[in-house]
Amino acid sequence: MTGPDVGSRAPEALTSLHNATVSKRRGRPSGGTILSWVIFIAAMLYFFLPLIATLEFSIRMRPSGAAYTNTFKDARFFSSLAYSFLIGLVTIVVSTLIIVPTAYWVRLRLPRLRPVVEFVTLMPFVIPPVVLVFGLIRSFSTGILPLANTQLGSDVLLVAAYTILSFPYMYRAVDSGLRTIDVRSLTEAGHSLGSGTFRILWSVIFPNVRVAVLSGAFLTLAIVIGEFTIGAYLNRPAFGPYLSNIGQNKTFEPAAVSIISFILTWLAMGVIAFLGRTRQGRTTGVQVGGGH
Amino acid sequence: MSYLVLQGIQKRFGTTIAVEDFNLSAAKGEFVSFLGPSGCGKTTTLRMIAGFEPPTAGSITVDGLDITHRPPNRRNIGMVFQSYALFPNMTVADNVGFGLRVRKRPKAEIRKRVADLLDLINLPDKGDRYPWQLSGGQQQRVALARALAIEPEVLLLDEPLSALDAKIRVALRREIRSIQRQLGITTVYVTHDQEEAMSLSDRVVVMSEGRIEQIGPPPEIYNFPATPFVASFVGTLNLLPAKVVDAGSGIVSVAGQQIRTPKAITTDPDRSVTVALRPEAVEIGEAGGANRLTGRVEDVSFLGSIVRTRVRVGDDASVSLDQFNDPALAAAAIDDTITISFPPEATLVLAGAASASATIEEAIAEV
Questions:
Q1: What are phi and psi of B80, to 5 degrees?
Q2: Which end of chain A, N or C, is less packed with Cβ atoms under 10 Å?
Q3: Which residues pair with B260 in a beta bridge?
Q4: pLDDT tens digit string along A63-108?
């Protein structure tokens, strides 16, 4: 008889436990919860208010929506956005090719150099872009590599400059990605199975830091799309200089362009995130499962 | 015929000596364990065999071929890590087949070999799982299969069971030994667990502070420890402070009670020494041997197959003794005064006085 008795009491116990939890949940929010909400709402207002104001201003032009139709009619809008997007993608590739092996090697073999490398990657925060671009123009206008004198050369300089700008974001993202895996053991396991370092990097390390690379890539793309100084001084048809140009000459269109570019950049990031997620499914699983 | 030979191996990290004068010859198919406490140099030695650390001096040969300066990926030495080190982005089958893909073996051959190995480790249906979907024990079996897939000349295992719980550890230990015997692969196993080393190995290398203390089959290591360190590290040991009474006859006094040791003591009478004594050599009553001590029962612990009794024989000396559990066993009661006995051969005299906090490392050298 004992068995069924216990069995019938069990759901009651569960129900009372559930009720207790629900009543606790329905209870008055604590001071900490209210403060959290206040901070959250303040942060959302700080983020969205300028956007809402820009949107509101952009639709004031008459006839209604003219600022947007004018923008879409301007071929330079699409060409500059496409150019900056392409430069952004190339920058992400170059930056990844430099940062992933560097961060890997520093973590594996030169851990003492980590503070030095971190400091070097922070240089873009210390040196203003205008100094960087003048340095590049002066160094690469003459001599054995006069890159600034040709269109393609200037594109190369632009990518190089943007790659440097991406270092702080990319290095930190990749380094924290590497922190979540046992780089040394995985590398040694690969070596003991006969693999060379490049293959380990490509087929073991890189797939496991893909999420980290993606988060660095988002920031890089966002920076490149909106960057003005370097694009303007290298005289490239980038989106930043275009935005500045119409800002000086038109009233409502700059606001419309800002809103459109904002949406397009977020869409692009969404696409990268989606592509990353489908290929990353396994690794994401690993991270979830890591706590098992 | 020696297959794996380490000759005069030394490893220094700056001014610190991690391994010194390490010499070992292992036969083909032999299972050798490196046993010692943390920091004794066992893992460093294993890593030198794997090629992850270059030795400062000495040479390593496998089947007559000098591999001392070969990079690890050209040694054909399989390694199983304490942390499993399975590639998290690859399935079990991809992990096991990784080494074969690196060697550019045909796909059909890789598939077959992976399936065979998954059968061998009793995980035939787990090929498409990811490492995080497996338990710790299963992951370590996959790591073993991955290391075996490349048909290594030597298999290295670096504390492979220390992250697992006790029951799985014992089961996997048996499995590792059975697979190793089946494949006849020369194996070096690093552990700080003496039970693991004793139960698995053909020979055990006991290490301390970068040096080999003793090499021998498990019974020899246990029964005839060559140094005080080995005596203390392998098995449980009673350390009794004693005074030399008659050095020539090997007679000492423990808490005022005289006992005989197996050989003459090369030190002055009245000098303090330490007598080491294994718990299983001591019996309650007078039938255990010529040496007798009387004391008060301080504690009786039931350890499953063994009952361990601690008897205080003096202010600063107590003796633990083991009896096999038996339903008919009349265990001593706490506070009883009893006599215990043991043969002189069961004792080992060490220099220096033992104290309540003394460790065997502090007992300087055998007298």
A1: -115, 130
A2: N
A3: B251
A4: 878 888 888 888 888 899 899 999 999 999 999 999 999 999 999 9
Q: What is the CA radius of gyration of chain B?
A: 24
Distance from CA of B176 to the nearest CA of A (A): 19
The total number of structural domains in chain A stands at 1
| Tokens encoding B311 | 């008897």
The beta-carbon neighbor of A204 closest among B87, B103, B143 is: B87
CATH number, domain of A230, equals 1.10.3720.10
Interval B209-243: pLDDT, tens: 999 999 999 999 988 888 878 887 887 788 888 99
Judge if the upstream peptide bond of residue A63 is cis by omega within 30 degrees of 0: yes
Sign of CA dihedral A161, A166, A167, A168: positive
Tell me the residue type at B287.
A
Mean pLDDT of chain A: 83
DSSP structural state of residue B52: S
pTM: 0.77
Confirm whether A48 is domain-assigned: no
Predicted-assembly ipTM surpassing the 0.85 threshold? no
Per the domain annotation, does A3 fall within a domain? no
Nearest to A286 among B130, B143, B147 (CB): B130
**What does the CA dihedral B20, B26, B30, B31 come to, rounded to 10 degrees?**
0
User: Which range marks the domain in which residue A76 is found?
Assistant: 70-282
Which residue is listed with tokens 């498409």? B128
> Considering Cα of A72, then A75, then A78, then A80, what sign does the dihedral take?
negative
A27: exposed, middle or buried (Cβ count in 10 Å: 0-12, 13-18, 19+): exposed
Residue of B nearest to A292 (CA): B132
Q: Is A58 among the domain residues?
A: no
Asked, for residue A101, whether it belongs to a domain, the answer is: yes
For residue range A98-147, list pLDDT tens digits in order. 999 999 999 999 999 999 999 999 999 998 999 999 998 988 988 888 88
Q: Does A291 touch chain B (CB under 8 A)?
A: no
